[in-house]
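Now read this:
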Amino acid sequence: MAFSFLLLLAAQATPPPSEPPIDWDKEFGVEQKVRDPATGETPVAPYTQSNANAGARPFSGKTMARTFGGQDGIRSITARLVELSENDHRTTAIFKAHDMVRLRRTLYEQFCYILNAGCDYSGRDMASTHKDLGLKMVDLNALVENLQRAMREAHVPFAAQNRLLAKLAPMDRDTLKPR
């Protein structure tokens, strides 16, 4: 009897074999996108790369590129635009779920290409890029205000700012949610 009692105590003291934790993402088919180790970007579905995807033709000549400070100036302006937009309560939700590494790169390439500063644009076309964002005119206006601030801080002359904005403005038909 005492031996049976000891066996019973020993059985209760030994924890049952533990089961591995449930991987709920795997269970429900959620795929984690792994960033490219070289670029830090999240992979996207294949698409045809073309400068035509930039949404506007480049300026002729090098005046606009020089006015914006060349590639270094354009990189600074686009980085500042992204920083302002990430921290702007009107636009922060738009940027939250995005690959910011890719956004910074492709936005820089787009502006660099349009300003004729010697870059090619490798991003997707504007309609594909923005199709599921549900952007409205109020969102676009906030982004434009942030771009204007970034250009102003970089001492880009007002006339040059307006020339770039005039190139970007027609893209609203590809970037905004249909009414």
Notes: The chain has a mean pLDDT of 82. The CA atoms of residues 80 and 121 lie 19 Å apart. Residues 1-179 form a domain with the Globin-like fold (CATH 1.10.490.10). The longest helix spans residues 70-86.
